[in-house]
Amino acid sequence: MSPRIPLVDLKAAYARRRADIDAAMREVIENTRFIQGQEVAELERDFARFCGTSHAIGVGSGTAALHLVLAALGVGPGDTVAVPAHTFAATAEPVTWLGARPRFVDVDPETGCLDPIALKSAIDGVKAVIPVHLYGRPADMAAISAIAADAGVPVIEDAAQAHGAELDGPEQTRRAGALGRAGCFSCYPGKNLGAFGDAGLVTTDDGRIAAAVRSLRDHGRTSKYEHQVVGYAHRLDTLQAAVLLVKLRTLDADNERRRVLAAAYSAQLAGVGDLVTPAETPGRRGVYHLYVLRTAHRDALLAHLNAAGVGAGVHYPIPLHRQPAFASIGYGDGDLPATEAWARECLSLPLFPELTAEQQERVVAAVRDYFETVS
Ligand SMILES: *Cc1c(COP(=O)(O)O)cnc(C)c1O
Question: How many structural domains does the chain have?
């Protein structure tokens, strides 16, 4: 049997740039500036330029990025923060760490991102709203920002899956991370800009938020020995910054490759069975962190693909409002119908810049095979 096709191939990603990454890591290992070394500052400069923001701040993870921005905005006990429920748990966890409560909001049936209409009726009294650019697809930021601005509520982007995603505006095209008060990025290994461990970045044009996040990530320090507030240990390792600097150089090309592969999947899978291919919204250029189909046959198709050596996955089968971790908030089945439909029907196919045409053909053939012979 042919080798298994993984959902993400981190070995192929390393093999392509092995010499550059090895040299960059060796430099840090030899100069031993493991904490706040110059690579962290270089990455912050380059990533801010990449996103088109005045500031980028390296942090320990995407979750830490959200935690620090919420803390910088003063979210605390008694507050509520509006978040979608069709996302990874990390979108909501930091809200609860600060003593606040997530208010789960339904998603748009077509895009899977926060639904502006649902947000409108949920925004009363919230301290912040966190839309997620899910699967690398920009949320409807024009509508969300207008609703949030009316209510005087800051918008924090969960851009963990969306490095380089673009949104056309009335005057200019802007990138994820530059679309709200602050952007929170994950550099978890499998993300579009992936480190060799945990890593993340915060972007913002707001100098006060940037300064607060810089201090809070490093024990609330304002100087070596002075701690203005009780902060956190949420710094970005220099070794991770060195890896990310190498990978950032090819991020635009890698994202373009993802878009080409996604278009090929959609062309070859349109009209197969009951498959719904990912929506492409004019003016919103996603970066396909994941290629996600919908089908009523999800579980059977998933089992068929896995048995055929195709590493398909599900993002995410249990929405946050139905997770035991958030049960005490009191949501029930049926409370967020579009979210629950996504959780039942979504299926992710292997997608990464190094995916070969031959591998993609095998994935497509296995999907077709299911609908022709099994279902
Ligand atoms: C990956 C991810 C996070 C968390 O990032 P980490 O770097 O793993 O902490 C947050 N939100 C979303 C949507 C993610 O996909």
Answer: 2
